[in-house]
């Protein structure tokens, strides 16, 4: 029997040492746990459809350099923090100078602050379910801490721009930790972009801790190039009456994987998860979400839409777990999928696991193609076939695109979608 593949030891040697001692100790501890770690295979249930796309070569284990890169040309309508290859660029960043909102890079933390952070990193994620999150914890060389004091409100969105420059093979491990105090409010936009053509990997983690009454909106926009493998995880823990809203928009690549885990620990907490994915060519995108209803009277609403063209592949696995004490829970999950070509594939697996008896839960999933009757109707009214295809496809996802609360992000998404439509619908 062929032995299961394990993580190469080349990935267990982080380069950067410019971190406080408690974070270096945490990184060493996480790295020790990865020795001989089996890599996901088809027999790994939550990597069943994605393991064959995972390519972790020794060349990719090298940390990407940051010398000479500033990202200063990137302009956004709000505050911004720029990461180049996993390292924060203070000279290219513009963030608020407010007494009740603290934004710091990991390397600037005192030993006491770093010790507190080290105890809380990874606390929002089920590391057994998100196997490769441990790789980020063993390799991060920089990161961002965002702390909102009770009642703090950030008046503009904070853009965190993650740029990877692929002049040579390598990897980057950006990290964000958000601590939202009681009744605080923030909109955080994560934008992932790239340049260069060499094969690289981005492995990223973002964690949110929401205190009572906190209100957090997270927009995640993945637009990296065809040479970038992206493995990301987002962990969220919510306390009483807090609200978390997520908008994930992803464009496919050689491997795109995002695990989103939300844990509703306080009574009356709410979360809303929206997701849009488009793939073409031979691209692959895999979204895995988990919502844990731990406390009573919590609401969750989840809507994901996938569009796959050519011979591409999209995956959605959504799980809602209602714990025994989570009475009066209200949970709804909906996943709709659109195949634009017969060679495209979409796999969907909605899951409900309910241990309470006084709940309202529903889930649904559909996979189909563009309606020929609707297409004929539009063409018969003088609309070109390409334009008709675009109209019907855009209508399929427009409900979610229009809900993105930041206009600049909506415009960026629309621009990329237009490019997708240009390539997916060619005039005969």
From TrEMBL:
Residues 167-396 form the SUF system FeS cluster assembly SufBD core domain. It comes from the Bacteria. One of its GO terms (biological process) is iron-sulfur cluster assembly. InterPro entries: Fe-S_cluster_assembly_SufBD, SUF_FeS_clus_asmbl_SufBD_core, SUF_FeS_clus_asmbl_SufBD_sf, SUF_FeS_clus_asmbl_SufD. PANTHER family: PROTEIN ABCI7, CHLOROPLASTIC. This is Iron-regulated ABC transporter permease protein SufD. It comes from Marinobacter antarcticus.
């Amino acid at each position: 029997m062929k032995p299961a593949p394990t993580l190469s030891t080349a990935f267990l040697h982080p380069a950067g040492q410019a971190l406080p001692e408690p974070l270096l100790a945490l990184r060493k501890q996480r790295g020790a746990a990865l020795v001989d770690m089996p890599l996901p295979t088809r027999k790994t249930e939550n990597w069943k459809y994605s393991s064959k796309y995972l390519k972790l070569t020794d060349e990719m284990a090298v940390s990407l350099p940051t010398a000479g890169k500033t990202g200063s040309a990137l302009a956004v309508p709000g505050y911004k923090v720029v990461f180049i290859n996993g390292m924060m660029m203070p000279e290219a960043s513009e963030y608020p100078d407010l007494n009740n909102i603290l934004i710091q890079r990991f390397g600037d933390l005192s030993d006491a602050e770093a010790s507190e952070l080290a105890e809380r990193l990874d606390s929002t994620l089920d590391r057994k379910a998100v196997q490769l999150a441990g790789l980020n914890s063993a390799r991060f060389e920089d990161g961002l801490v965002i702390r909102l004091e009770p009642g703090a409100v950030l008046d503009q969105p904070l853009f965190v721009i993650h740029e990877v420059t692929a002049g040579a093979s390598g990897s980057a491990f950006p990290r964000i930790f958000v601590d939202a105090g009681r009744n605080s409010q923030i909109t955080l936009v994560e934008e992932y972009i790239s340049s260069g053509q060499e094969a690289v990997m981005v492995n990223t983690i973002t964690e949110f801790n929401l205190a009572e009454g906190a209100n957090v909106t997270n927009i995640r926009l993945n637009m990296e190039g065809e040479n970038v493998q992206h493995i990301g995880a987002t962990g969220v823990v919510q306390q009483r009456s807090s609200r978390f809203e997520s908008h994930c928009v992803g464009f496919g690549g050689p491997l795109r994987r995002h695990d989103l885990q939300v844990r509703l620990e306080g009574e009356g907490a709410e979360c809303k998860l929206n997701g849009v994915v488009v793939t073409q060519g031979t691209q692959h995108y895999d979204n895995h979400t988990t919502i844990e209803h731990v406390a009573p009277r919590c609401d969750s609403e989840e809507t994901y839409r996938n569009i796959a063209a050519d011979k591409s592949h999209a995956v959605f696995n959504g799980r809602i777990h209602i714990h025994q004490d989570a009475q009066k829970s209200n949970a709804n999950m909906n996943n709709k999928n659109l195949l634009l070509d017969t060679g495209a594939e979409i796999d969907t697996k909605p899951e409900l696991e309910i241990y309470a008896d006084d709940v309202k839960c529903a889930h649904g999933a559909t996979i189909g193609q563009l309606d020929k009757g609707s297409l004929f109707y539009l063409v018969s009214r003088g609309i070109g076939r390409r334009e008709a295809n675009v109209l019907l496809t855009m209508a399929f996802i427009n409900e979610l695109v229009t809900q993105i609360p930041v206009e600049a992000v909506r415009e960026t998404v629309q621009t990329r979608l237009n490019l997708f439509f240009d390539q997916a619908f060619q005039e005969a």
